[in-house]
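[recover] target loaded
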Protein backbone atom coordinates (compact mmCIF):
# COMPACT_ATOMS: atom_id res chain seq x y z
CA UNK A 1 0.00 0.00 0.00
CA UNK A 2 1.52 3.32 -1.02
CA UNK A 3 1.82 6.16 1.48
CA UNK A 4 -0.83 8.86 1.10
CA UNK A 5 -0.04 12.11 -0.69
CA UNK A 6 -0.52 15.18 1.52
CA UNK A 7 -2.80 17.68 -0.18
CA UNK A 8 -2.51 21.23 1.19
CA UNK A 9 -6.00 22.36 0.46
CA UNK A 10 -8.88 24.75 0.95
CA UNK A 11 -12.19 24.16 -0.84
CA UNK A 12 -11.88 26.61 -3.75
CA UNK A 13 -11.65 26.04 -7.53
CA UNK A 14 -7.85 25.74 -7.46
CA UNK A 15 -7.99 23.26 -4.57
CA UNK A 16 -10.70 21.13 -6.24
CA UNK A 17 -8.54 20.66 -9.34
CA UNK A 18 -6.24 18.46 -7.27
CA UNK A 19 -8.82 16.66 -5.12
CA UNK A 20 -10.54 15.70 -8.39
CA UNK A 21 -7.25 14.51 -9.92
CA UNK A 22 -6.36 12.41 -6.86
CA UNK A 23 -9.83 10.84 -6.90
CA UNK A 24 -9.70 10.17 -10.65
CA UNK A 25 -6.25 8.59 -10.35
CA UNK A 26 -7.27 6.59 -7.26
CA UNK A 27 -4.27 7.81 -5.31
CA UNK A 28 -4.55 7.71 -1.51
CA UNK A 29 -4.34 11.20 0.02
CA UNK A 30 -4.83 13.13 3.23
CA UNK A 31 -6.14 16.67 3.35
CA UNK A 32 -3.98 19.25 5.12
CA UNK A 33 -6.33 22.22 5.45
CA UNK A 34 -4.79 25.65 4.80
CA UNK A 35 -7.32 28.20 6.02
CA UNK A 36 -6.53 31.06 3.65
CA UNK A 37 -9.04 33.37 5.36
CA UNK A 38 -7.12 32.91 8.64
CA UNK A 39 -3.67 33.49 7.13
CA UNK A 40 -2.39 29.91 7.35
CA UNK A 41 -0.85 30.29 3.87
CA UNK A 42 1.78 32.56 5.43
CA UNK A 43 3.13 30.02 7.93
CA UNK A 44 6.86 29.43 7.37
CA UNK A 45 6.27 25.65 7.13
CA UNK A 46 3.76 26.11 4.33
CA UNK A 47 5.88 28.73 2.54
CA UNK A 48 8.70 26.16 2.33
CA UNK A 49 6.38 23.97 0.26
CA UNK A 50 4.54 26.76 -1.52
CA UNK A 51 6.68 29.94 -1.69
CA UNK A 52 3.90 31.88 -3.48
CA UNK A 53 1.65 31.61 -0.36
CA UNK A 54 -1.12 29.95 -2.31
CA UNK A 55 -2.72 26.54 -2.05
CA UNK A 56 -2.95 23.88 -3.51
CA UNK A 57 0.36 22.15 -2.93
CA UNK A 58 1.24 18.51 -2.38
CA UNK A 59 3.87 16.46 -0.64
CA UNK A 60 4.32 13.01 -2.14
CA UNK A 61 6.27 10.82 0.31
CA UNK A 62 7.01 8.49 -2.60
CA UNK A 63 8.35 10.90 -5.20
CA UNK A 64 11.00 10.30 -7.85
CA UNK A 65 13.57 7.75 -6.69
CA UNK A 66 11.24 6.79 -3.83
CA UNK A 67 12.13 10.04 -2.01
CA UNK A 68 9.61 12.69 -0.85
CA UNK A 69 8.87 15.62 -3.14
CA UNK A 70 6.74 18.74 -2.76
CA UNK A 71 5.01 20.45 -5.68
CA UNK A 72 3.18 23.81 -5.80
CA UNK A 73 1.14 25.42 -8.64
CA UNK A 74 -1.90 23.40 -9.64
CA UNK A 75 -0.76 22.97 -13.27
CA UNK A 76 2.61 21.55 -12.18
CA UNK A 77 0.82 19.26 -9.70
CA UNK A 78 -1.55 17.94 -12.38
CA UNK A 79 1.34 17.25 -14.77
CA UNK A 80 3.31 15.55 -11.98
CA UNK A 81 0.39 13.30 -11.01
CA UNK A 82 -0.31 12.54 -14.67
CA UNK A 83 3.32 11.49 -15.24
CA UNK A 84 3.43 9.56 -11.97
CA UNK A 85 0.37 7.48 -12.75
CA UNK A 86 0.46 7.49 -16.55
CA UNK A 87 -3.20 8.56 -16.45
CA UNK A 88 -5.08 11.48 -18.02
CA UNK A 89 -1.81 12.91 -19.46
CA UNK A 90 -0.82 11.17 -22.69
CA UNK A 91 2.82 10.18 -23.20
CA UNK A 92 2.62 10.48 -26.99
CA UNK A 93 4.30 13.84 -27.71
CA UNK A 94 1.67 15.21 -30.12
CA UNK A 95 -1.20 14.31 -27.81
CA UNK A 96 0.71 15.68 -24.81
CA UNK A 97 1.29 19.03 -26.51
CA UNK A 98 -2.46 19.49 -26.99
CA UNK A 99 -3.00 18.83 -23.28
CA UNK A 100 -0.17 21.22 -22.37
CA UNK A 101 -1.55 24.00 -24.61
CA UNK A 102 -4.95 23.93 -22.99
CA UNK A 103 -3.59 23.37 -19.49
CA UNK A 104 -1.41 26.47 -19.84
CA UNK A 105 -4.39 28.34 -21.29
CA UNK A 106 -6.29 27.49 -18.11
CA UNK A 107 -3.40 28.47 -15.87
CA UNK A 108 -2.55 31.72 -17.63
CA UNK A 109 -6.01 32.89 -18.69
CA UNK A 110 -9.03 31.14 -17.24
CA UNK A 111 -7.84 30.89 -13.61
CA UNK A 112 -6.47 34.45 -13.30
CA UNK A 113 -9.29 36.13 -15.25
CA UNK A 114 -12.11 34.25 -13.53
CA UNK A 115 -10.35 34.99 -10.24
CA UNK A 116 -10.29 38.74 -10.97
CA UNK A 117 -13.89 38.67 -12.21
CA UNK A 118 -14.94 37.01 -8.97
CA UNK A 119 -12.92 39.49 -6.92
CA UNK A 120 -14.49 42.56 -8.50
CA UNK A 121 -17.97 41.11 -8.62
CA UNK A 122 -18.18 39.32 -5.27
CA UNK A 123 -15.67 40.96 -2.93
CA UNK A 124 -14.70 44.44 -4.11
CA UNK A 125 -18.21 45.94 -3.68
CA UNK A 126 -17.79 45.41 0.08
CA UNK A 127 -14.32 46.93 0.09
CA UNK A 128 -14.94 50.29 -1.59
CA UNK A 129 -17.16 53.19 -0.52
CA UNK A 130 -18.45 53.97 -3.98
CA UNK A 131 -19.35 51.05 -6.33
CA UNK A 132 -18.80 53.35 -9.33
CA UNK A 133 -15.06 53.04 -8.59
CA UNK A 134 -15.06 49.39 -9.64
CA UNK A 135 -17.46 49.52 -12.57
CA UNK A 136 -14.70 49.52 -15.19
CA UNK A 137 -12.96 46.53 -13.57
CA UNK A 138 -16.20 44.54 -13.25
CA UNK A 139 -16.91 45.06 -16.95
CA UNK A 140 -13.36 44.34 -18.06
CA UNK A 141 -13.14 40.98 -16.27
CA UNK A 142 -16.71 39.93 -17.05
CA UNK A 143 -15.97 40.53 -20.73
CA UNK A 144 -12.77 38.55 -20.51
CA UNK A 145 -14.54 35.62 -18.81
CA UNK A 146 -17.18 35.77 -21.53
CA UNK A 147 -14.53 35.74 -24.27
CA UNK A 148 -12.77 32.76 -22.67
CA UNK A 149 -15.97 30.71 -22.36
CA UNK A 150 -16.53 31.49 -26.03
CA UNK A 151 -13.06 30.10 -26.85
CA UNK A 152 -13.92 26.91 -24.94
CA UNK A 153 -17.30 26.63 -26.66
CA UNK A 154 -15.66 26.83 -30.11
CA UNK A 155 -13.02 24.30 -29.10
CA UNK A 156 -15.74 21.83 -28.06
CA UNK A 157 -17.40 21.90 -31.49
CA UNK A 158 -17.55 18.25 -32.61
CA UNK A 159 -15.65 16.92 -29.58
CA UNK A 160 -16.56 15.68 -26.11
CA UNK A 161 -13.41 16.88 -24.36
CA UNK A 162 -10.87 19.64 -24.87
CA UNK A 163 -8.06 17.27 -25.87
CA UNK A 164 -8.74 13.94 -27.57
CA UNK A 165 -9.82 12.33 -24.31
CA UNK A 166 -10.83 13.39 -20.82
CA UNK A 167 -7.58 14.63 -19.29
CA UNK A 168 -5.95 16.85 -16.67
CA UNK A 169 -7.22 19.76 -18.80
CA UNK A 170 -10.79 19.06 -17.68
CA UNK A 171 -9.63 18.77 -14.05
CA UNK A 172 -8.06 22.24 -14.31
CA UNK A 173 -10.93 23.93 -16.14
CA UNK A 174 -14.10 22.43 -14.79
CA UNK A 175 -14.04 23.83 -11.21
CA UNK A 176 -13.81 27.38 -12.61
CA UNK A 177 -16.09 27.05 -15.63
CA UNK A 178 -18.91 25.48 -13.65
CA UNK A 179 -19.01 28.66 -11.55
CA UNK A 180 -19.37 30.96 -14.57
CA UNK A 181 -23.13 31.39 -14.14
CA UNK A 182 -22.68 32.67 -10.59
CA UNK A 183 -20.19 35.16 -11.98
CA UNK A 184 -23.12 36.57 -13.95
CA UNK A 185 -22.48 34.88 -17.30
CA UNK A 186 -25.45 33.94 -19.44
CA UNK A 187 -24.56 30.30 -20.06
CA UNK A 188 -27.46 29.88 -22.49
CA UNK A 189 -25.09 31.29 -25.10
CA UNK A 190 -22.68 28.36 -24.71
CA UNK A 191 -24.49 25.05 -25.38
CA UNK A 192 -21.34 23.00 -25.96
CA UNK A 193 -19.82 24.18 -22.69
CA UNK A 194 -23.05 23.29 -20.87
CA UNK A 195 -23.03 19.77 -22.33
CA UNK A 196 -19.34 19.41 -21.37
CA UNK A 197 -20.12 20.56 -17.80
CA UNK A 198 -22.87 17.91 -17.54
CA UNK A 199 -20.54 15.23 -18.92
CA UNK A 200 -17.90 15.99 -16.30
CA UNK A 201 -20.34 16.51 -13.43
CA UNK A 202 -21.62 12.96 -13.97
CA UNK A 203 -18.23 11.42 -13.13
CA UNK A 204 -18.23 9.86 -9.64
CA UNK A 205 -14.57 10.84 -9.04
CA UNK A 206 -15.39 14.47 -9.81
CA UNK A 207 -18.25 14.34 -7.31
CA UNK A 208 -15.92 12.87 -4.69
CA UNK A 209 -13.28 15.51 -5.45
CA UNK A 210 -15.81 18.26 -4.81
CA UNK A 211 -16.97 16.61 -1.60
CA UNK A 212 -13.40 16.63 -0.21
CA UNK A 213 -13.14 19.03 2.69
CA UNK A 214 -16.78 20.13 2.32
CA UNK A 215 -16.93 20.56 6.09
CA UNK A 216 -14.30 23.33 5.79
CA UNK A 217 -16.50 25.41 3.54
CA UNK A 218 -18.54 27.95 5.48
CA UNK A 219 -20.97 30.50 4.09
CA UNK A 220 -19.05 33.68 3.20
CA UNK A 221 -18.92 36.13 6.13
CA UNK A 222 -21.57 38.85 6.09
CA UNK A 223 -20.54 41.99 4.19
CA UNK A 224 -19.04 44.55 6.56
CA UNK A 225 -18.76 42.03 9.44
CA UNK A 226 -15.56 41.86 11.49
CA UNK A 227 -14.93 38.35 10.13
CA UNK A 228 -15.20 39.60 6.57
CA UNK A 229 -12.85 42.49 7.25
CA UNK A 230 -10.29 40.14 8.83
CA UNK A 231 -10.44 37.70 5.88
CA UNK A 232 -10.19 40.59 3.41
CA UNK A 233 -7.09 41.84 5.24
CA UNK A 234 -5.49 38.42 4.81
CA UNK A 235 -6.40 37.96 1.18
CA UNK A 236 -6.32 41.41 -0.38
CA UNK A 237 -3.76 44.18 -0.42
CA UNK A 238 -0.89 41.71 0.06
CA UNK A 239 2.59 43.16 -0.43
CA UNK A 240 6.06 41.70 -0.01
CA UNK A 241 6.32 43.46 3.36
CA UNK A 242 2.88 42.37 4.57
CA UNK A 243 3.67 38.74 3.73
CA UNK A 244 6.92 38.92 5.70
CA UNK A 245 5.01 40.34 8.68
CA UNK A 246 2.28 37.71 8.44
CA UNK A 247 4.89 34.94 8.18
CA UNK A 248 6.60 36.23 11.33
CA UNK A 249 3.24 36.19 13.16
CA UNK A 250 2.58 32.60 12.11
CA UNK A 251 6.01 31.27 13.09
N1 LIG B 1 -1.69 29.73 -9.80
C1 LIG B 1 -2.03 29.14 -8.53
C2 LIG B 1 -3.19 29.90 -7.93
C3 LIG B 1 -3.60 29.36 -6.58
C4 LIG B 1 -4.49 30.35 -5.82
O1 LIG B 1 -4.74 31.46 -6.27
N2 LIG B 1 -4.95 29.91 -4.64
C5 LIG B 1 -5.73 30.79 -3.79
C6 LIG B 1 -7.07 30.19 -3.44
S1 LIG B 1 -8.04 29.80 -4.87
C7 LIG B 1 -4.97 31.03 -2.49
O2 LIG B 1 -4.32 30.13 -1.98
N3 LIG B 1 -5.04 32.23 -1.96
C8 LIG B 1 -4.36 32.60 -0.76
C9 LIG B 1 -3.95 34.04 -0.77
O3 LIG B 1 -4.41 34.80 -1.64
O4 LIG B 1 -3.17 34.43 0.11
C10 LIG B 1 -2.39 27.66 -8.74
O5 LIG B 1 -3.04 27.38 -9.73
O6 LIG B 1 -2.00 26.81 -7.93
Amino acid sequence: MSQPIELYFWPTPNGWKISIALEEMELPYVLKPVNIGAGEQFSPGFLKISPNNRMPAIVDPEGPGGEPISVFESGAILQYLGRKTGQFYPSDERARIVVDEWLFWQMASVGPMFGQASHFRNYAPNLVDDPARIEYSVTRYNNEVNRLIGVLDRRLEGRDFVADQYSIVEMSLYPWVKLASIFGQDMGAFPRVNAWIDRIAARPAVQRGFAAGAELRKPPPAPGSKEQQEAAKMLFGQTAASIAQAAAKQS
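[recover] notes: The chain has a mean pLDDT of 94.
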